[in-house]
Amino acid sequence: MMNSKIFIAIVLSCIIASIHAYDPDALQDLCVADKSHGTKLNGFPCKEMSNITSSDFFFAGISQPAVVYSTMGSAVTGANVEKIPGLNTLSVSLARIDYAPGGLNPPHTHPRATEVVFVLEGELEVGFITTSNKLFSKTIKTGEVFVFPRGLVHFQKNNGKSPASVLCAFNSQLPGTVSVAATLFATEPALPEDVLTKTFQVGSKMVDKIKERLSTKK
């Protein structure tokens, strides 16, 4: 009987861990990322405590709007473990997105995190698409919040005549971004052309035209 209880407890612990574990859990107070370390891990090795400074927990890169150069009319500034080593093992990160008038953050996914956006200024049309191809969209304004569930394709578009900005929060130190268009048409090496022509029911010339346009978008 005791062995059965122990077994059930172990199984439940594993189930709970699998439900809640997105990023690795911290097993100590601090595990500041040592990005100079040669070892490859699911995450980053920890710096020696004696080498940790306050700067490892600081980043000023999202305090001001970014200059929007991209043809899409948006600029994303990440505040993740790559910019803030102190986020390592803490399962959180931020980003700021700035939009020119008419700017778009095109359809994409974050494979490792749910995203919450808070509108700093302006007005945006936002939405996400479920795995059953249902669109949930809404117009959000300054001070309002919208949630994009983990892994689902989503977008934001500034339909206004003035700039807009949002602050994004993620439940991952490095949520990752998969851009739908770039993944299909600008990957290296390229997807076989017949895969794209058959998927989108278009000719090779159209595929080549899309590839050419996307290759110039940054």
Q: How are strands sequenced across the largest beta sheet?
A: 1-2-9-4-7
Mean pLDDT: 88
**Poorly predicted ranges (pLDDT <50, ≥5 residues)?**
11-19
- The succession of helices and strands, N to C, reads HEEEEEEEEEEHHH
Q: Your description of this structure?
A:
- It is a single chain.
- The protein is of the alpha+beta class.
- It is 21% helix and 27% strand.
- The chain contains four helices and ten strands; from the N terminus they run αββββββββββααα.
- The protein has helices at 2-20, 180-185, 193-200, 204-215, and strands spanning 74-79, 93-99, 104-109, 115-121, 123-129, 135-141, 145-148, 153-157, 164-170, 178-179.
- It has a five-stranded antiparallel sheet with strand order 1-2-9-4-7, with no helix packed on it. A five-stranded antiparallel sheet has the order 6-5-8-3-10.
- The longest helix has 19 residues, at 2-20.
- The radius of gyration is 21 Å and the shape is globular.
Q: Characteristics of this structure?
A:
218 residues; alpha+beta; five-stranded antiparallel β-sheet; 4 helices
Outline of the structure:
By secondary structure, this protein is α+β, with helices and mostly antiparallel strands.
Fold topology:
Layout: H1 2-20, E1 74-79, E2 93-99, E3 104-109, E4 115-121, E5 123-129, E6 135-141, E7 145-148, E8 153-157, E9 164-170, E10 178-179, H2 180-185, H3 193-200, H4 204-215
Antiparallel strand pairs: 1-2, 2-9, 3-8, 3-10, 4-7, 4-9, 5-6, 5-8
